[in-house]
Amino acid sequence: MLISFLVPWFVMFTGVLMAHGAQAAAPALAPIPPAASHAQDQSGRALYATACAGCHGINGSGAPRAQVAFTDPLPDFRDCQFAPREPDADWLAVIHDGGPARAFGRMMPAFAGALTLEQMERVLAHVRGFCTDAAWPRGELNLPRPLLTEKAFPEDELVLSTSVATKGAGAVSNKLVYEKRLGPRNQLEVVVPFTFLQDDSPDATGWGGGVGDLTLGMKRAVAHSHTRGTIFSVAGEIIVPIGDDALGLSKGTPIFEPFVSFGQVLPADGFIQAQAGIELPFDRELAEREAFWRVALGRSFSQRHWGRSWSPMVELVAARELESGATTHWDIAPGLQVSLSKRQHVLAAGGVRLPLNDRDGRHPQVLFYVLWDWFDGSLFGGW
Question: N or C: which end of the chain has fewer CB within 10 A?
Answer without folding.
Answer: N
